[in-house]
Prior knowledge:
A six-stranded parallel beta sheet has the order 3-2-1-4-5-6, sandwiched between helices. It has ten helices and six strands. The longest helix has 16 residues, at about 45-60. The chain has helices at about 25-35, 45-60, 65-80, 90-95, 105-115, 125-135, 145-150, 160-165, 180-190, 215-225, and strands at about 10-15, 120-125, 145, 175, 195, 210-215. It is α/β, with parallel strands linked by helices.
Amino acid sequence: MPLPPLKTIEWVTTDCYGTLIDWEKGILDAFGAEAERDGFSFEERPLLERFFEVQAEIMAGSYELYAEVLRRTAVKVAGEIGWELEPSRAQFLPDSVERWLPFREANAAMDRLAKRYQVGIITNTDDKLLGISRQHLRTELDLVVTAQQVRSYKPDPTHFRECARRIGGKKGWIHIGAGYENEVAPCLKMNVPVIWVNRHGEKLDGRKPATATVKNLREAAKKLGAGG
C-alpha cells in the first residue's frame, strides 16, 4: 500500500532504540568497557547479533522490566563468549542507557515532524529507562507507549493496539521504525502504514515490503513532508 495523502495524516509514532537512539553503539561501548576490566575482548558484530537474538528469546517469556531483560541478556551472552560475568555485575548495561546517544539526525527530524503532526514513541523499554533516554531527546511528545505500560514486548501487537486505542483508531496514523520484525511486521499485519528506517541496508528476503523504506530518520521526515 502506498503512503496515505499527507493531509490525512494526524499521528506519527516512532520506535526509540535503533530508530532515534543508537543503541548498537551504546551496547557495544558498555560491553567493551566492562569486559576490559577483566582483560577480555570480543568481536563486536557477532556479539551484537547474538545479543539481539538472546534478548528476543527473553522478551518472549513472561513479562519483566526491560532493565532485567538487559541484565539477563548481558550475563547469557557474556557466558557464551567465554567471559564469566557475575550476575551482580550485569547492572552495568542498564546503567549505560544514559550514555546511549541519539543518531545525529534524530532530534532535528523529530522537531520537524512535531511541527506538522502529533508525535509519539512506542518502545520496548520500561518507563524509568525511557525517562533517562528522553533527556537526550528534545521533542515534546503527545503519546508514549512503553512495554511496562502494556506488560508485553514487540513484536507482540499489544503496543500498537494500545496506541490505536489511545488515538481513537488506526486512521491518520503512520509508524516509523528500524527493526523489521518488531516494527514493520506488526504494523503491516494491522494495516498501519509503516516507514522502515533500514540503516544497515537489510534485504527483505521474501518478507513483505514496508509502506516506504528509507536509510535514516531525516529521509522518513522528508517523505512525510517535514524535510529540511
